[in-house]
Amino acid sequence: MTAPLLEITSLSKYFGGNAAVSDVSFSVEKQRIVGLIGPNGSGKTTLFNCITGYYPAASGRVRFCGCDITGMKPDRVCRLGMVRTWQRVKPLAGLNVLENVMTGAFCRTRSASEARKIALHRLEMLGLDNVAQKTAGDLPIGLKKKLELARALATGPKLLLLDEVCGGLNFTETQELLEIIRGIREKGTAVVFIEHDMKAVTGLCDRIVVLKSGEKLAEGLPSEITSNPAVIAAYLGTGYSHA
Amino acid sequence: MTKQWTGIATFAALAASVPFFLGDNPYIADILITMLMMAALASAWNIVGGYAGQFSFGHAAYFGAGAYTTSILLTASSIALPLCIGAGILAASLIALLTGAIVFRLRGHYFALASIAVAEIVRLTAHNLEITGGAQGLLITDITFGNLDLNSKEPFYFAMLFLLVTTLAISLLVRHSRAGYFLLAIREDQDAAASLGINLYLWKNMALVISAALASVAGSIYAVYIRFIDTSAVLSLRLSIEIILTTIIGGVGTLWGPVLGAALLVSLAEALRSNLAGELLVNSGIITEASPIESFLKNNLAHAHVLVYGIITVLCILNLPKGILGLFRRKQRT
C-alpha cells in the first residue's frame, strides 16, 4: 500500500489553557475527498491553520507527500502542493480578478504569459471569465468564494484545503460549486473540505472526519457518520439519537 | 504595457530635448535637475512602498550612502566615477539588506519604525566619523569624467534623466513580471500571499534592495553635482519624508505618480521660496510692493513650503487616496 498524501498524527494546539485541537489523527489518500465537520468552535479552521503552517502545532506531526512538513512556513507548504482557501475570504482586493488568479499561477511558472493562460483557464472553469477585469474587492461574496477557489487551483495543488467554500452561497451556487469540486477530484487533486452543510458533505465525500471540542469524535464513510449516535448527539443534542 | 513603454520612450525623448530649447539658463536647469532627482527617488521608493506596501521612512539613508561613498572615494582616491557609483550601490544595498533581514521577519508597522531608526543611525554615524567629515561635511574639490564639462549643468541633467528613465523602466518590468504580482499580493494581504506560495521575506527584501540601489545612484549624482554634502543635506529625515509625500501626492503604486508628484512639489517649493505669489500680485497691480501684504508674503511664505506640503498631503489623503494621478484614472474608467 502506498503512503497517504497527507498524514496527520496526534496533532494538538492550545490557546492559553484551551485545547483548540487535541490529539487529532487522520490521513487523506490521493484523489479522495475528505469532509471535515463539527459544530462551531470544534477546531476545524485551527486544524487547517496548523496543517498549512499558519500556527505552530504544540505537538504531533504532519506529513505531506512523504515529507515531514510540521512547522513549515505556509509559502513552502503551498509550493509543495498543498493550498488552502479562507473561510473569511482574502481577495487581493485592489487587483482585478484575473490578476488575483495569475498571482496564484506564478507558483508554478515564471512566465507572465504562461500564468495568464493558466489563470484564464481556471476562470473559465469556475465561470468567472466574464468578471475577469473587475476589481476583486468589489465582487459579491458568492463570486469572492469562487475566486478563492480559482486562485488556489491556479497554484497547481495536489491537495486542496477548502474552508467553507459554500458558506454564504445559495442552493444553486452550492450545487454548482460541489460539481466543480467533483471535477477537481477527477483531474487528480485530493480535497479536504470543512463544511456545515451536512447534505453537501455526505453527497460528495469519500470519508468524513468529525471534530468536537478539538477532538476527533468519529471518522468513516458518509453513511456510517450519518447514523453514528455520537455525531447525531453532537449536532442535534442527545434527544435525537434514535430519530 | 506596450502603451506604457511608449510613454516612457516619449517622456525620455521630450525631456532629453528640453536643454536644447532652454539654452543656458542655470536657474531653470537647477530646478529641472532637482525635479528629475526627486522623481527618480520617489519612483525608487514606490517599488518598495507603492508596490510591496512596505513604507520606508528612511530612504535618505540609501541616498546618503550613495552620496557619501562616492564623495569619500573621489576625494581619497583616483577611482573612476562609475566605480564610485557602483560602490555607493553596494553600500546602500548592504544597509537595506541588513535592515530588511532583521525587520522583515516581523509584520505590520515595524518596518516603518525600523527604517527611521536605521536612517538615524546612519545619519548620526556620518555626523560623528572623521572619514565622513563629521558635522562639516565633505567637499569634492576636483573631479573629472572623460571630457565632460562638470562645471556646467547639462551632464547632470542628462545623468538624472537617465537614472529616472532607468528607474521607470525597472518599475515597469517589475510590475508586469512575477515579482510585481508577488509584491502587489504582499501589499494587499500577506496571509493570502503566503498561502499562494509567496515567500514574503524574500520578496520584501528584494524590493527594498532594488529601491535602495536606485536611490543611492541619485545620491551619487547629487554629490558630484553639488560637490558638497553634509548630513543635513543628504541624510535628513526631512528628505525621507519628502520622498514619501512626493509619491503619495502624485499617486502611490502607479508608474507616473511619483514623476507627477515631483514635478508639482518641486515647482511649488520653488514658487514659494522665490515668493512667486507675492510677485504675481504686485505685477498684476493687486497689491503694491511696499504694502504690508507683500512684506508678509515675502517674509513668511518663502519659509512655509513645508507647511504647504503638509496641507496638500492632508487634502490628498482625504480626497484623493490614489493621488493626483487618480483623478485622471477615475475619469478614464467610468
Q: List the quaternary state of the chains.
A: heterodimer
* Count of DSSP strands of chain A: 10
Q: Nearest-angstrom radius of gyration of chain B?
A: 20 Å
Parts with pLDDT < 50 across at least 5 consecutive residues of chain A: none
Helix content class of chain B: over 70%
Strand order of the biggest β-sheet of chain A: 6-7-8-3-9-10
For the sheet with most strands of chain A, the description reads: 6 strands, mixed
CATH H-level superfamily title of the largest domain in chain A: P-loop containing nucleotide triphosphate hydrolases
Number of spatially distinct domains of chain B: 1
| Tally of contiguous helical segments of chain B | 16
Helix content of chain A: 25-40%
Give the CA-based shape of chain B: globular
Mean pLDDT, all residues of chain B:
91
Beta fraction of the residues of chain A? 15-25%
Tertiary shape of chain A: globular
Question: What does the average pLDDT of chain A come to?
Answer: 91
Greatest interface by residues involved: A-B, 30 and 20 residues
**Which topology of the largest domain in chain A does CATH recognise?**
Rossmann fold
Number of strands of chain B: 2
Could you characterize the architecture of this molecule?
The complex is a heterodimer of chains A (about 240) and B (about 325). Chain A has about 240 residues and is an alpha/beta fold. Chain A folds into two domains: about 1-80 and about 160-245, P-loop containing nucleotide triphosphate hydrolases (Rossmann fold), CATH 3.40.50; about 90-155, no CATH class. Chain A has nine helices and ten strands. A six-stranded mixed β-sheet of chain A has the order 6-7-8-3-9-10, with helices on both faces. A four-stranded antiparallel β-sheet of chain A has the order 2-1-4-5, with helices on one face. In chain A, a hairpin with a 2-residue loop joins strand 9 (about 205-210) and strand 10. Chain B is built from 16 helices and two strands. Chain B has a two-stranded antiparallel ribbon. In chain B, helix 2 runs antiparallel to helix 9 (about 200-225), helix 2 (about 25-50) packs across helix 11 (about 235-250) and helix 11 crosses helix 12 (about 255-275). Classes of the chains: A alpha/beta (about 240), B mainly alpha (about 325). The interface of A and B includes residues 52, 54, 93 and 155 of A.
